[in-house]
What we know:
Layout: H1 3-15, H2 20-33, E1 55-62, E2 65-72, H3 75-88, H4 93-98, H5 103-106, H6 115-141
Antiparallel strand pairs: 1-2
Amino acid sequence: xxxxxxxxxxxxxxxxxxxxxxxxxxxxxxxxxxxxxxxxxxxxxxxxxxxxxxxxxxxxxxxxxxxxxxxxxxxxxxxxxxxxxxxxxxxxxxxxxxxxxxxxxxxxxxxxxxxxxxxxxxxxxxxxxxxxxxxxxxxxxx
Length: 142
């Protein structure tokens, strides 16, 4: 499924709820369904700087696709990590680098986060794109 199709699915899922408390509940449920990150991946180099909570993000390249795994010690942030992974994992570095993550605005996520959480969201997106750029550089040299 394309990144845009995944984003559209998330938009549809969030549009089912009018109240932001219900949307927060959905985010928490998504976070709770996220597979826990292995302890060996919870290392300092995988921590996202700029997040209010502790967020770990691990990426690897498998068969030309970037696979992300992540976790947070805050339930709401873990849901945000889950959304980003759902949209960006298992795509090529080029697809990840060149995509616009429009679902964040469409579901109203950024405007319903505190400024520090919003900054953390931007830091997560930036780190995911940086991983993709690093893997693109490696694959371009091959």
